[in-house]
Amino acid sequence: MKLSRILSIPVFSVIFVVGFVYYVTIFIFIEDCFGLNSLEGSRNAMIFTFFAFLLLFSFFVCVLTDPGGVPSGFVPDVEESLLSNQENKNSRVYQRHCDKCSAHKPPRAHHCRVCRRCILRMDHHCVWINNCVGHRNYKSFVVLVFYATIASGYSLIMILNCALQKDLDFSGKMPLKIFYITCGLMILGLTLTLGTLLSWHIYLISRNMTTIEYYDGKRAAWLAKKSGLSCHHPFDVGALKNVTLVLGPNILKWFWPTAVSHIKDGLSFPTARDNS
Ligand SMILES: [Zn+2]
Ligand SMILES: [Zn+2]
Questions:
Q1: What are the start-end ranges of the E strands in the chain?
Q2: Assigned domain for 268 exists
Q3: How far is the centre of ligand 2, averaged over its atoms, from the C-alpha of 113 (Å)?
Q4: In terms of domains, do 195 and 227 share one?
């Protein structure tokens, strides 16, 4: 755990934005719309506080969790290496040696120029968490985006509810009207951005793919098409198994208990090793 990761301007900016959205939602919009002493007001304030707490908790987990480095002295499996090189000579997915670290690296690991080391199953380096998103903190990153989308959407609903209750009539209070419109547009933009990011990662999870692998795959598909070949992402084993491999079997148990028993045989195939 590296507490020093918190000491960065982007991390403080995220904390400031969360604090600002929390303050205006609870103490301005919910207070103005329902009144915090009313049953509906206190219920909405509690629900929003709950999501804001989960959002901040998963944010700090993302910041403080090591994304997963390559163990020192890692040596690739020779048989696997030969097979991979024969099948995927042009694919960066199977590049096994990092020149910068002067060390072997496993499949799906990539060198991060910011962290100055190789990261297992690296997705991208995120400035907002001042950390890489990799093997060990990818799940908490997706959970963070999920709660952030819900909290932002909830705040937007509160603003709209409040504005509609006032019938968009602020009785000549122009500064208040401008404040409502500015906050509404800002939180609308935030909700759309977070919703797009969440949709993107749901797509990647359903394909068992990282952001880096997506762009590498596009390049590999273009090269394969030029040679008259087809290109298939090697870790894609079907949407349900992919979700289980990336997020763990418990995620499906919550939504679809019988799904885990359907796919339990699939949990022992080779690609599971990269996510264990
Ligand atoms: Zn490296
Ligand atoms: Zn990094």
A1: 97-98, 103-104, 110-112, 117-119, 124-126, 131-133
A2: yes
A3: 7
A4: no
Q: How many domains does the chain have?
A: 3
Task: Report how far ligand 2's centroid is from the alpha carbon of 132 (Å).
Answer: 4
pLDDT less than 50: residues of the chain: 82-83, 86-93, 95, 265-276
Whether 55 and 108 map to the same domain: the answer is no
Crossing angle (nearest 10°) for helices 9-23 and 39-64: 170
Q: The domain containing residue 262 runs over which residues?
A: 211-275
Ligand closest to the CA atom of residue 111: 1
Q: What is the pLDDT of residues 136-172, one digit of tens each?
A: 999 999 999 999 999 999 999 999 888 887 766 666 6
How many angstroms is it from 77 CA to the middle of ligand 1? 18
* Look-up of token digits 């040696």: 97
Provide the residue type at 257 as one letter.
P
Amino acid at 105: K
